[in-house]
Amino acid sequence: MKELSALPLFAKVVELKSFAEAARQLNVPTTTVSRKIQQLEHDLGGKLLNRSTRSLSLTELGTQVLPKAQLIADTVTELYSDAEEMANQPIGTLTISAPKALSQDLLAPMLAEFRALYPTIRINLASSNRFQDLTKQSIDFAFRLGPLHDSNLVALTLSPVKYVLAASKSFCAKYGKPSHPIDLYQLSCIRNHVEGYFLPWRFTFNGEEVEINNQSDIVSDDFNVAKALMLNNAGICYLPYSLLRDELLSKDVEILLEHWVPQDRTMLLVYPDKRHLPLKSQLFIEFIRTKRADFREKLSGVSQTATNE
């Protein structure tokens, strides 16, 4: 049927018993209402209305069609009402993807605060180190390490992410400290992987670049587990500074080869490039913008006091 949109018009004309009044209330020309209903009658193969200069009455076909037309009109009205409500009130579910360590260390309290501000917005947090396709998996936002390679996504830069090579003081006292990345081949290292893909240990200093890909006796798919292994003297780990912040401040852990570890990672909030974001998404983006200082303090290894001095 070509003129499905004419069914609500037909219902409105019958309700008001006037083409002109229906056109006025719908803010369209009377000729448009008349033309669309004529096309509807043509598509249905019969007249819907008996028209005279003073009155309208339903034909037998019109009587059969009217309930369905009214149902469609009511559904359209309800849809517009729902859309208007969603545009003006922060409702719905936000599905967010983030690495496990970031979710535990930083995002959990932030999301709790966001929920306190907007209790009508539901949060579905998928904590995973696995790369996820936002569009295919209907994810509204993802926290990822940059740079961004997908041109279909929008990225909000949050903070540099400092990584460190570290070991416990006891481990260093027993086995010594590496003076060059090549020395790591002679030391126990705790390697991290994501679904079998081992994250490379990259080093660069004074124009020299080294990548360590040795097979380790200890592997983990969870940064917090790698941290616990390191604290229990199992070996050397390569982790975000934020996970070791407290231990580094208390001097329980030592940073190794500090000048060799490249600091080229950036935490991003990414989301699909949509022209009209729902209010729930707009509010979340603005909330995360206000938390940039918290991200920088936790992830970059630079305190706000030092930044402001």
Please, could you describe this protein's structure?
The structure is a single chain. Helix 1 packs across helix 3. This protein has 3 domains: 80 residues, Arc Repressor Mutant, subunit A, CATH 1.10.10.10; 112 residues, 3-Layer(aba) Sandwich (D-Maltodextrin-Binding Protein, domain 2); 98 residues, D-Maltodextrin-Binding Protein, domain 2, CATH 3.40.190.290. With 309 residues, the protein is an alpha+beta fold. Helix 5 links the parallel strand 3 and strand 4. It is rod-shaped and about 105 Å long. The C terminus is likely disordered. The chain has 11 helices and 15 strands. It has a 5-stranded mixed sheet. Strands 13-7-14 form a 3-stranded antiparallel sheet. The N and C termini lie far apart (70 Å).
Strand order of the largest sheet: 4-3-5-15-6
Distance between the termini: 70 Å
| CATH architecture type of the largest domain | 3-Layer(aba) Sandwich
Structural class: alpha+beta
CATH fold node name of the largest domain = D-Maltodextrin-Binding Protein, domain 2
Our count of domains comes out at 3
Mean pLDDT: 86
What global shape is seen?
rod-shaped
Assign the CATH superfamily of the largest domain: Periplasmic binding protein-like II
Taking the sheet with the most strands, its summary is: 5 strands, mixed
Rg over CA atoms, rounded to whole Å, is 31 Å
In terms of DSSP E residues, the strand content is 15-25%
In short:
This protein has 309 residues and is α+β, with helices and mostly antiparallel strands. The chain has 3 domains: 6-85, Winged helix-like DNA-binding domain superfamily/Winged helix DNA-binding domain (Arc Repressor Mutant, subunit A, Orthogonal Bundle); 92-160 and 266-308, D-Maltodextrin-Binding Protein, domain 2; 163-260, 3-Layer(aba) Sandwich (D-Maltodextrin-Binding Protein, domain 2). It contains 11 helices and 15 strands.
